[in-house]
Amino acid sequence: MLYLLDYGAGNVRSLANSINKLGFEFKWVQHPDDIQKADKLIFPGVGAFGSAMTSLRNNGFAEPLKQYIASGKPYMGICVGMQCLFEGSAEDPSQPGLGVVPGVIGKFSANDSMGRKSVPQMGWNTAEVVKTRSDGGDEDAVKYGFPPRDAKDSSHYYFVHSFRAGFDASKHSDWALTTTQYGSEVFVSSVQKGNVFATQFHPEKSGRAGLELLRAWLSRDGTLAPAKERLLLSPEDIARPAAQDGLTKRIVACLDVRSNDDGDLVVTKGESYDVREKEEPQQDNAASSSAPQGGKRQVRNLGKPVDLALRYYLEGADEITFLNITSFRSCALQDQPMLSLLELAASKIFVPLTIGGGIKDSVDPDGTPRPAKEVADAYFRAGADKVSIGSEAVYAVEELYQRAKENGQGDEANPLNFKDACLTGKTGIETISKGYGAQAVVVSFDPRRVYLQDGEEVPEAHRTCLVEGVKGSEDEGKRWWYRCTVKGGREDRDVDVVQLARGVQRLGAGEVLLNSIDRDGSNKGFDRQLVELIRRSVDIPVIASSGAGTAQHFSDVFTPLEGETSSVEAALAAGIFHRKECTIQEVKDHLLSKGFKIRSEAV
Ligand code: 1PR
User: What ipTM does the predicted assembly reach?
Assistant: First the structure.
């Protein structure tokens, strides 16, 4: 019997869903004794190394796990489930690892010899097979579900991590099955020796390529003979970085979800966040059941959320984001349809899912307090891989500045350098990031341009956010800064986008979803100045959003500006995909023709 080790730290539902999809059965490890009953065991570690190891020890799993591995029965680890095999990690030096694989896990550097890169690494990268059995050519890697080293097209796998096992020939030659390069850093992306197999990436989130890998491991009886393994390249060649890494640009499909006037959950899409039809309903429609009372403009209905999401998955979307856009009206946990929607989507879609809207501290109608973390827990259990926080992040950053002032750090200081004393550890960003890792916390920005009149000065606090229109563009001669809003653009706040971006990174967010109220639904292209401003202000990945109208707009936003070596890693669109003005495949074909690295795999 296959057992899955869930130590309660995070979303293991996606792995359970993929195992079900492949037609295999499994049981959960409920008790340390279950580990010895297993014929096969998967440890899908989620979250942070320290909390994973603490939890393994506190629950009495650590020793049985070591004994299981020593017994020679098949073990598969995923992400933190691979990192725990090492001797320790810089993520939490106080916690020893299981010590099965030699070496200590270190952190990615945001600046390496190839320039600046975002940390965490979040996205699709290749895995180069470096080890095989001397009697079987590439057969070994193939048996593990990887394409042979000389395959024409690389497969891509979904990675999301800030810590990695840098390849060290003196320690890992025996163990490294594949390596991957991020920036100039070459790290071990899967290990294998005898009965032990583990991946840094998430096969359960890696579309078809990942499912193949899981199928290969689940279908195999017993383990491969450990003897006669050899490296395909010399350790020096493995460690030497190539001129470029293999990380692809990500295309994210976004579904803004809300109830329409009939109470059905629909995907909607507006312009500048106005999601109602332009025209009032016709007189002769007024009697129909779908026409709202009082001639109110109807909510645009572009389809059913799960149907559309599945279409985008099959067309090759690299990620899918659901935003509950009217969540501010009620408590998210009361919003059962959103949870069911997510559960259904997660049972059919095997790329990362993000859910946003209403992730905040709230109080149920019966007076029960619900911390943001509890809301996030419910979404992770339902199958989310990341949660996206909007309004609450703005309030948290406002308070962060306030505390910074009290701690003697003025408005001028860069929040990235704020002392720990400025943090409470209690905001939604901090609690969710601590429990699930920074990579699971996205912050969704809803900024609006504030234009300055001739001779008007930008407020001192927002100086870093001042932008001038590019010569020759429709903005030539204009100056503006970007103000943050809350409640879906309904309320302005006195925080600018740079303050918000740095503030949320300091609080522990792992990614920025950068919308623009001015560009939303406009088909004019992404606001490149806004995107560059934020990309340069933080180390975490940025998803450009709002305004995509053509495939060319994606290559524009991915092309580094003059004097820059990199650009954003991901771009999100909604309207053009919903209205079928351009398919995901067309965007990807265009990007490939322009020489961008892209995961080109419709399912
Ligand atoms: O504040 O934590 O409850 O989160 C609410 C979330 O709902 C936020 O992420 C906020 O951006 C979103 N939201 C609220 N109201 C609206 C609205 O449209 N009325 N949608 C809204 C924001 C922006 C993008 C959109 C892109 C791409 N929608 O999600 O998909 O602009 O569109 P395009 O390609 O068609 O231009 P909280």
Answer: 0.98
